[in-house]
Amino acid sequence: MTVAVIALAAAGCGKSSQDTGASGTSSSGKYNGKGIGLAYDIGGKGDQSFNDAAYAGFQKAEKDFGIGGRDVEPADNETDADKVQRLDQLAKAGYNPIIGVGFVYAPAVKEIAAKYPKITFGIIDDNEVTAKNVVDMVFAAEQSSYLAGVAAASATKKDHIGFIGGVDIPLIHTFEAGFDQGAKSVNPKIKIASQYLTQTPAEGGFSSPDKGKAAAQGQIDAGADVIYHAAGLSGQGVIQAAATAKIWAIGVDSDQYGQSALAKYKDYILGSALKNVGGAVYDLVKSVYQGKPESGVIEGTLKTGGWGGGGRGTATRTLKPQ
Q1: E-only strand ranges, 63-139
Q2: Phi, psi dihedral angles at 70 (to 5 degrees)
Q3: Which is deepest, 13, 118, 226, 314, by most CB within 10 Å?
């Protein structure tokens, strides 16, 4: 039988960055910043997941508003001070808005936003930084993960599925909880293996495909035939292991079925829980460009389009199990 899978999208010292444009003015004459500043999370651009989702929104905003921008890569083993320096450099250069991709930027955003009150700062996956010029972009991860669980429980032939989280933190626990609930709504007795790659981000849980591959192989050897990951760049290893074993993998954040770097594994990607990070980035840039900057906590849910396919909707893909 075929299984319908919902691909859900809600969404300083570092490597060299690109500057793709100069300052601009909106059609209403309200925008006069230099462009968009985007600082990547662990794993950087090219993770085919979380960071790439942010970059997609960055690119679309550049194109639609013609304001250019600069995106900056993280450094290995960097500190909060490095992030502070990175955001400070972007602010000094006149970028507006400036977005930290990931909760790890919370201390840096809090410090630099206070220093530059006329610049709008955004932070993804954190709601604890409160200031008039800060936008906290959060997502109801449990909602799309619930549907990923439904899909996994519907696709498994062994009633044995797995979850792999990048780092053992509350944010990723939310993915696991939704996945478990969704799977058990289909089969209350289903076996669900769960594993976290590291205890802290600094240990590489979101940036180590080899760790993801080893964890997935362990679950496969124990009998799992569908594995869902919430592990950033490490998830590439999960997908590789699943494809090698000819079982299903479920991706996260970006549509990993459609990622060119994962094309050779696509026949074994059941779907993806797509967090609309790109849409959140785009909407924040649009608000600043139009002279009406967003502020406060903005939560992406299935109802608001924070999780859904493509732009702000829902896409489905029907695949036949191997």
Answers
A1: 69-72, 98-100, 121-124, 134-139
A2: -140, 130
A3: 226
**Helical axes 235-245 vs 209-221, angle rounded to 10°:** 40
Report the chain's terminal Cα–Cα distance, integer Å. 10
Rounded Cα distance, 183 and 191, in Å: 9
Task: Tell me the pLDDT tens digit for each residue of 125-150.
Answer: 999 999 999 999 998 888 889 999 99
Bridge-based pairing of strands 121-124 and 36-39 is unpaired
Alpha-carbon span 239 to 248, nearest angstrom = 8
Q: State which amino acid sits at residue 71.
A: D
How far apart are alpha carbons 174 and 307 in whole angstroms? 14
Helix or strand or coil: residue 126?
coil
Residue entry with tokens 């939310």: 174
In whole angstroms, give the CA distance from residue 140 to residue 130. 19
Could you give the CA distance from residue 278 to residue 310 in angstroms, rounded to a whole number?
10
How high is the mean pLDDT of the chain? 85
